Task: inverse folding
């Protein structure tokens, strides 16, 4: 395909451009060079000889006639034509341009700059001619007849002052457009020239002194070194130093080594440092503060959360501990397993008994006795960890008779969470050793959550969202909530304009129907691509670096840069979606999961049914962090954790977490619906953004294009847009948005029109559309044909 494009693109160019062979170019180059040189010589000599030769002008046919011009009759006549009859002294520019063109052809340099040279050269030539016409008081040899006449004409129409003003204006155009001069540069140049003169004066003095001392020293040593001098070469060393002495300064040093070696040290002028724009902006306005718009935003207070641990913290029931210990020892003894040591750690829901078996006991033997031990302890949810990684002991987790609820309040208030320096800290609950378990969602970077119904998934999701609400400002994180069950996440509607993201033109931010989920996922893919483009432009690797750069005002918002909040997509019932939409949901989710980590889009996907047709290989591979609440079978446990264990949990927020190999048992923090209602109410009652965070618009296939879009109804930027896409060979609306500074809707509309015109191909999911026209030439032809046919 690419090759095909190449051939078609080069074909039409061949037709129009005439190309010279290398030899022809050398010949043409040398001819022009010599011609230019001849012109220069004749022009220069004309100024010395024109008065003498004046009477011989035009008498070319008379062979004997001699003129004084260095190129004789030819020179005198050509110079007369260009200088006297033409442009006066500025005809030298013409000769110079011819010479330069010769050089370009001779060495076969790229010809593009030549056009510029000629354009500006001729303009300058004309200007100088008029200038001399104005000031030269009729001396036609300086202004030429053209300069004289134009000046005369101007004065007749706009008067002396008018002519002067026109000349000044043209001069300004030349200086600003051609020489890119700005008023600041002129002022700086003036200042530095003043400095230069002052330092020149000082250095002259220094040099004088140095020279004087050198002379006197030399005189003393003169006799001594006279003979040796002949054999020692004079040393002239130029050294660039970076000492902050402004203009070049020469110091002549006398060397100590034998002989008289002179060294001249040249100190380079310190380059003037211009303050970086971003530094200046930061100095003037401070760092960009994304929270500024809601600067009075108040985080919810801890008082909104309740303490569910009615009986206070964890109580240790000595009797229960002793009883369990005896039973474990007994059971193991029945199987002839001796125990050297046993230790208990009491957690909120389970107690961990760590056993060190007698020497020579095989670990697998204990592992196989899991069910027997469970039976003898007459308890559900025994989990044997053999061995506990990194400890060299065997762990038996036994549920407590009176499990304690871990309140969200206690984990949010914990120092570990409060002091967490994480991008997206989540306090899940407490581990078996009663430590608050805090992880960074940004590092996970996506999370899969499974558990049979009623085991605590929804509470777990609320815990995640609550953690983020307690730590992150509305400017820093946005949620996309997908809730096919329609009841679980409705409370978060209240914080729509603070924390939620949604598709443009949709009423509700919380997504409950499948089509909208598909649109949102594809829209997120577009957002992801746009963010990657922004990161690429900013030359950073991830969202954190990008936002730091943006805060330091190193990225220009006029070029599409903006502060990027993290986006957390929460899907409450994934099985439901996969069943109804299948690949349409799976593909964008897999794409996001694969790519979105660096640009701050994180997915949390929860499901009741962790079967392989729901959690497919591709999804699983991209969700390294997994959470399992209690599931009904070992197979489900393996599907979600790649390990058994989740089937032996006791429910009510008892969960296993893994982000690699190790499983951590956690009691999920409990946050009740009224608490969530209070928090969202508190946030929702504060000043909000005008709207939810708007995701890029996604035009689904069915919402597709009207292929009969009228040519007259096309957008004014249609042609430009077509050119942008054809050059980039990429049919993306976000490209148009960036290059032509369009809004998303308009860019989308233009894309539709381009599709209708047959310039770009149909929509291809989250991939950019194909561009069907390979080159600009082909595009022009295509559009011209279209106009002719109408
Ligand atoms: N961390 C927890 N601590 C204490 N109790 C909990 C915890 N999590 C859940 N529960 C109890 O379990 C009940 C069900 O929890 P939840 O609604 O989260 O289940 P679920 O897995 O989302 O169920 P479903 O899939 O049917 O929505 C809660 O009402 C609560 O009483």
Result:
């Amino acid at each position: 395909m690419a090759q095909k494009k190449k051939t078609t693109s080069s074909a039409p160019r061949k037709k129009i451009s005439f190309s010279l062979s290398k030899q022809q170019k050398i010949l043409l180059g040398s001819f022009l060079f010599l011609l230019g040189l001849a012109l220069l010589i004749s022009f220069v000599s004309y100024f010395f000889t024109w008065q003498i030769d004046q009477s011989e002008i035009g008498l070319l046919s008379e062979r004997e006639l001699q003129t004084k011009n260095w190129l004789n009759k030819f020179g005198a006549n050509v110079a007369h034509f260009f200088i006297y009859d033409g442009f006066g002294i500025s005809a030298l520019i013409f000769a110079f341009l011819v010479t330069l063109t010769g050089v370009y052809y001779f060495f076969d340099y790229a010809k593009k700059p030549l056009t510029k040279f000629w354009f500006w050269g001729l303009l300058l030539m004309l200007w100088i001619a008029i200038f001399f016409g104005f000031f030269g008081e009729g001396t036609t040899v300086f202004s030429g007849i053209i300069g004289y006449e134009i000046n005369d004409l101007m004065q007749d129409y706009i008067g002396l002052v008018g002519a002067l003003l026109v000349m000044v204006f043209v001069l300004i155009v030349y200086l600003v457009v051609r020489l890119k001069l700005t008023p600041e540069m002129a002022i700086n140049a003036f200042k530095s020239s003043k400095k230069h003169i002052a330092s020149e004066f000082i250095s002259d003095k220094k040099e004088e002194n140095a020279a004087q001392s050198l002379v006197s020293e030399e005189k003393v040593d003169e006799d001594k070194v006279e003979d040796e001098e002949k054999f020692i070469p004079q040393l002239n060393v130029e050294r660039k130093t970076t000492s902050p002495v402004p203009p070049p300064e020469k110091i002549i040093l006398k060397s100590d080594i034998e002989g008289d070696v002179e060294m001249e040290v040249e100190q380079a002028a310190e380059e003037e440092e211009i303050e970086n724009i971003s530094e200046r902006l930061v100095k003037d306005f401070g760092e960009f503060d994304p929270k500024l718009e809601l600067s009075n935003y108040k985080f919810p207070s801890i008082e909104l959360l309740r303490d569910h641990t009615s009986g206070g913290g964890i109580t240790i029931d000595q009797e229960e501990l002793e009883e369990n210990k005896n039973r474990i020892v007994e059971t193991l003894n029945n199987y002839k397993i001796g125990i050297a040591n046993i230790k208990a750690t009491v957690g909120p829901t389970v107690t961990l008994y760590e056993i060190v078996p007698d020497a020579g006991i095989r670990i697998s033997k204990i592992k196989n006795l899991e069910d027997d031990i469970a039976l003898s302890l007459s308890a559900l949810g025994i989990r044997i960890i053999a061995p506990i990684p990194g400890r060299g002991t065997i762990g038996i987790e036994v549920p407590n008779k009176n499990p304690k609820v871990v309140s969200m309040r206690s984990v949010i208030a914990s120092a570990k969470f409060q002091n967490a320096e994480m991008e997206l800290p989540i306090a899940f609950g407490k581990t078996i050793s009663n430590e608050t378990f805090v992880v960074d969602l940004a590092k996970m970077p996506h999370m899969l959550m499974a558990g049979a119904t009623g085991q605590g998934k929804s509470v777990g999701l609320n815990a995640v969202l609550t953690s983020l609400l307690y730590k992150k400002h509305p400017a820093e994180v946005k949620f996309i909530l997908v809730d096919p069950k329609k009841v679980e996440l409705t409370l978060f509607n209240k914080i729509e304009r603070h924390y939620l993201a949604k598709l443009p033109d949709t009423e509700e931010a919380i997504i409950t129907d499948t089509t909208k989920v598909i649109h949102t996922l594809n829209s997120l893919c577009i957002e992801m691509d746009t963010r990657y483009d922004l990161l690429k432009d900013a030359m950073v690797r991830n969202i954190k670096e990008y936002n730091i750069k943006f805060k330091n005002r190193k990225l220009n918002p006029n070029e599409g840069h903006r502060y990027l909040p993290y986006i957390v997509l929460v899907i409450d019932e994934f099985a439901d979606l996969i069943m109804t939409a299948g690949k349409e949901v799976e593909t964008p989710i897999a794409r996001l999961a694969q790519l979105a980590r660096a640009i701050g889009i994180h997915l949390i996907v929860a499901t009741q049914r962790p079967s392989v047709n729901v959690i497919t290989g591709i999804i699983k591979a991209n969700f390294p962090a997994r959470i399992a609440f209690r599931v009904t079978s070992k197979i489900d446990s393996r599907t979600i954790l790649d390990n058994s264990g989740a089937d032996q949990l006791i429910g009510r927020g008892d969960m296993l977490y893994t982000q690699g190999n190790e499983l951590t048992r956690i009691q999920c923090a409990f946050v009740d619906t009224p608490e969530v209602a209070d928090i969202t109410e508190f946030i929702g009652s504060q000043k909000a953004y005008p709207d939810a965070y708007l995701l890029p618009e996604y035009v689904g296939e069915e919402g597709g294009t009207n292929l009969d879009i009228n040519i007259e109804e096309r957008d004014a930027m249609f042609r430009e847009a077509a050119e942008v896409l054809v050059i980039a060979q990429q049919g993306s609306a976000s490209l148009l948005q960036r290059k032509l500074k369009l809004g998303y809707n308009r860019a989308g509309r233009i894309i539709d029109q381009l599709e209708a015109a047959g310039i770009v191909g149909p929509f291809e999911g989250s991939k950019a559309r194909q561009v069907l026209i390979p080159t600009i030439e082909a595009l022009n032809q295509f559009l011209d044909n279209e106009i002719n046919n109408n």
Q: What stands out?
A: The first helix runs from residue 2 to 16. The chain is about 50% helix and 10% strand.
